[in-house]
Known about the structure:
Order of helices and strands: HEEH
Shape: elongated
Distance between the termini: 78 Å
Strand order of the largest sheet: 1-2
Number of helices: 2
Structural class: mainly alpha
Radius of gyration: 23 Å
Amino acid sequence: MKLPNFARILRASNVRYGDFRARGVPAILIGVSAVVLAAGTVRALKSAAPSLAEVVRETTKLVEAARTDQRRLNA
């Protein structure tokens, strides 16, 4: 089995985000890190899904209470 041309793969690997640029190995590491981060986020959201609706509901109530207190202080 013939090995892939690693030099070509490294040259083709680049990441650009605004003014930030990375090429070669750093770009590959950033890409792998992004995939791992996304997978971890999905796993965390999946495990938190049953309680997520309650968290959103409580956060909405907290924001509304803070607005009411702010209106009361401004009056």
